[in-house]
Amino acid sequence: MHFEWTQDLKSKTYRDALDIRKEVFVEEQQVPVSIEIDDLEDKTLHLVGYEESVPVATARIYPMENGKYKVQRVAIRKAVREKKYGSILMQEIERHVRELGGKRLFLGAQNHAIGFYEKVGYKICGEEYEEAGIQHHDMDKMLERDDSRLGDEH
């Protein structure tokens, strides 16, 4: 899988992200388009994962204050969910956010996905709430400093 990041709402990468989001959230989960496509589109970083040249996974990242980034709109096409692309997508998000100087990732997990996020290091940090007719919990993860790039300098 290879990844592309964009903030350009006219780009093919962004259109690919929207196609996945519409398929997963609007068609599968019946989330209204008016909720799915919101006023943060031009304030977020959009990520698409490609299997060869086919877009199969997406997420968007919203920069907040004090090194905190909110992970949103995580979606994997149904046809490839058994390939564990969600974990690879989350690793890429962490890599990129660390590169941007991020210290903490935050997200609103649909309840059925809590186990997945726990496996990749997130912890519940809030009470249950409903959004778009789906129960959620807020979760977060502190990012460790990546010392692997420092080599043997110390």
From TrEMBL:
Q: Give GO MF terms, alphabetically.
A: glucosamine 6-phosphate N-acetyltransferase activity
Enumerate the SUPFAM superfamilies for this protein.
Answer: Acyl-CoA N-acyltransferases (Nat)
Could you tell me which residue ranges the N-acetyltransferase domain spans? Answer: 4-144
| Keywords assigned by UniProt, alphabetized | Transferase
Signal peptide as annotated in the record: none
CDD domains in UniProt: NAT_SF
What is the protein name stated in its UniProt record?
GNAT family N-acetyltransferase
Which organism was this protein described from? Trichococcus shcherbakoviae subsp. psychrophilus
Q: What is the lineage of its organism?
A: Bacteria, Bacillati, Bacillota, Bacilli, Lactobacillales
